[in-house]
Amino acid sequence: MELLNELEMEQNEYGTLMDRFLDMHMYITSALQRTDVKALGLQMALDLIHKEKNIDLITGLKTRTQTGRPNWDKVYMLMLGNRI
């Protein structure tokens, strides 16, 4: 996690001087999806902490951890869109 934290800080520091060199998407794949009612309380708590402190409670990074599995079609389209 320390390496990701250093990369995130470096990108924030040099972000205005160069293009983003790293795009992090953090997922907890064993957790329930955001749309599942059982996970609603956890999601609300994580969202509030991230909004107030600008850090993710699970990783300690500024990048927000998502629950569930990635939407790979959306991820790939974002990746291709950044290269076009």
TrEMBL record:
<feature type="domain" description="Ferric reductase NAD binding">
    <location>
        <begin position="3"/>
        <end position="76"/>
    </location>
</feature>
<protein>
    <recommendedName>
        <fullName>Ferric reductase NAD binding domain-containing protein</fullName>
    </recommendedName>
</protein>
<dbReference type="InterPro" id="IPR013121">
    <property type="entry name" value="Fe_red_NAD-bd_6"/>
</dbReference>
<dbReference type="GO" id="GO:0016491">
    <property type="term" value="F:oxidoreductase activity"/>
</dbReference>
<dbReference type="InterPro" id="IPR039261">
    <property type="entry name" value="FNR_nucleotide-bd"/>
</dbReference>
<dbReference type="Pfam" id="PF08030">
    <property type="entry name" value="NAD_binding_6"/>
</dbReference>
<keyword id="KW-0560">Oxidoreductase</keyword>
